[in-house]
Predict the 3D structure of the following.
Amino acid sequence: MGGTFVITLREGFEAALILGIVYTYLQKIGAQRHYHYATRGGLLGVLASIALGIVVTALSGPLLDLGPDVIGLAVIFVAVIVLTWHGYWMRQHARAMTGDVQKKIDEAQATHRMWVIGVIAFTGVFREGAETVLFMWGLLTQATSTSGWASALGAVLGLVMAASLGWAIFRGSRHVSLQRFFGVTSVFLLLLAAGMFSTGIGRLEVMGFLPGTPTAWDTTFLLDDHGILGGFLNGLIGYRARPTVLEAGSYLLYLVVAGTLLYRSGASSPRSTTPTGRVPAHAA
Amino acid sequence: MRSAFTVLIVGLVASLVAVGAASAADPRPEIALTIDKDQFQPAEIKVKANTPFTVVVTNKNAKPIEFESKDLRVEKVVPPGKTVKVLIRALKPGTYAFFDDFNKAATGKIVAE
């Protein structure tokens, strides 16, 4: 039971984190009527995960040999793109959002396309969803009837726990000022996207499409990224216990490039009163 | 939501093309691996070092397995009766262990030389 609990909690955490941020964002800009973009995106992510799990289990053929790998990669890189875009947008508006807040909010709703929110929610859920569905299905069919129920219960509890954390983020950040929320979450999304980018590059490396590089460090003994705390840090900032040089390098590269893009003009702007929010724990 | 799907589909197609082009340009040797009655056959696979390859895993068990290797950083579920391809990077000479994550007693290794 403990095993499945940790798995679904770990896999669900990142999705819950992203959904928590996305709903809070909509609430902050007074766009509650657009909640359905996030809800539909998330639900579609769940349905797509289950559908892919069923397809892989029931069918076979050349497309299915590598199809799930390709879909997985596509989802990761699409997620990186939409998160960067959204982070950039938030950063721009965090700086501009002094003065007439309501006017700025209206402008935000008018200029920011809400479907981006839907894509973020979808990729956030679907990214780990299909693999989790397959793994859980495999695990459940292994178990004898009694421990099978315990495993299933553990999996459900893990998901409930992850969802509660997402809800806590939503509730907890209701009273954070709009500007501060934008400032902190833009840092957050930057780290999250850096972790995803590094994961995508790592997958290409593992499959041999990019040159293999040695392990940069191994801190598994200290903090395993398959454990609860390590898993949280993995979802939060892309922590890896045993990354390759290429993975660690691409994480840094993303941070430098996207960070420059987001903060270049911010550093010199006297209007920038946003805390840099280097400690991601603020928003959690 | 139409634009959202456009972005997703463009991303998907781009990746398909990229992976397709990459695998066409680089025909990898395929190595068959079967698991039957919780035994990997062959239990030891010999491959050429420094050359990417594909392991074609066929699961003849009546239950799913997860082909996993910490050394290769690979994990992939294979449903019963199904065959799944696992792309493996070019390996330095050495021994790389793999196992079934659902039944850790089933193990094997890849020897690159």
